[in-house]
Amino acid sequence: AANLAITFVLDGKKTILVDADLRRSQMHNLFSLPKESGITDYLLGTKTADQIMKKCGFENLFIITSGERPHNPSELVGTYRFDLLVKELKERAEIIIFDTPALLPVSDAIIMAPKMDGCVMVFRTSWTPLKAAKQAKFQISRMGCRILGGIFNGVTLSRSYYPYYYGYYGYYSYTKYSYEEEAKKRFSMREFGLHAENAFKRGVRSLRYSFPKYFAEGGNLVRQLIRKKTFWVLLFILCGLTGLEFWFRIRPVPQAADEGGIVYLGIAGGGEAKTGVRAGAYQSSVKKVQENSTSASVQPIGGAGNTVADTVSAALAAGALPAAQQQPAIGESLSRWFDARKAGKIEGYLSFYDTAGFKFPGGGFSEWREQARTVFTNNKKAVLILEKMEPETARSPLYIETTTRLLMISGSDSARMMNTMIWKNGPNGWKIMGEKEKRIE
User: Fold this and answer.
1) 391 pLDDT band (50/70/90 cuts)?
2) C-alpha 204: how far from its chain's center?
3) Is 108 exposed, middle or buried (0-12, 13-18, 19+ CB in 10 A)?
4) How far apart, in Å, do the first and last CA atoms of the chain sit?
5) pTM score > 0.90 for this model?
């Protein structure tokens, strides 16, 4: 209605647009006009025709808003005052357009139709059922109104149209009669349930009617895609990447011979050299380390006086470590690492980790530092005991792998953790390059 009125104005005709939808008016919002002093006030006899006509941004276009929402809109449009309004407006303009509510849910449009020179019916695509359109046309014709034509609104480019659930935006619920129709309503569980039920029903009906349309559109999309070369190129790349990921998952784990000189030795020195280096060559070097090394002086750490240095020395004596690949300071480094952790000295504990190259399953040194601070804070009163330390594997002249088993006692609770660490021998002594900690009990 608004667009039609503007079209007549641009054609040079003086036009009046009347918002005769007294239940849910919209014209005042479209033209940014006050809703007060509208057609309702004229029908109630409180305003004249000139007083309710409002100017807008278009020359020769006058808007009559709906005014305050009445209790009985159907009765007002059927009074003599409405006939008088039509007569007065015809004297003031060439074109008068009345925007009415939907025809089938309420009777307002049926009452106003015989008083008009003609009627234009508006239907919405994929919304107004054909049966409802035929019923509306029949009612208008039965009232003796001249049908000028119809407007098919909301047309899309799809080939078919499917009927949807037909309804008219809540004509049967009116609780307030004021200018503030957008005012917030109190929450009602019953109203919420009704809305949810109606939404579910509409969704089911919409899905039932829309499925053939969506199925056909999906088929068209597939046919268009398979004609594109780009689609096949992207599909080939995707399949290739998927195949590579699958191959990396199922490929065999590389043996020790592929690890560049890493030799795995057992706790008692009975390990097997995987890279062609004989274990006996390391056994001959153990004696030199035992002769040249000195035991570090440390405090007892749980148990019957055993120390980290004693554990390292015992491992050396048993031949667990290839002495040619480590320095005597590894025992002292392990001792001071454990003492710092046991005493809760976070900075001293973190000084044993290589800040640039350290890695663990959760990230790098910065993530390890935050995790360590959290653990130290949460376990201030816990007692830490070293149960076992096993220098398991020597990795080249610069690297060694150690495994420690710690017992943490906090009140009545206790937990055992196993730490596997990779130490690197550098200018600043032994530094931890990698660590993995898991709870074993």
Assistant:
1) low
2) 26
3) buried
4) 78
5) no
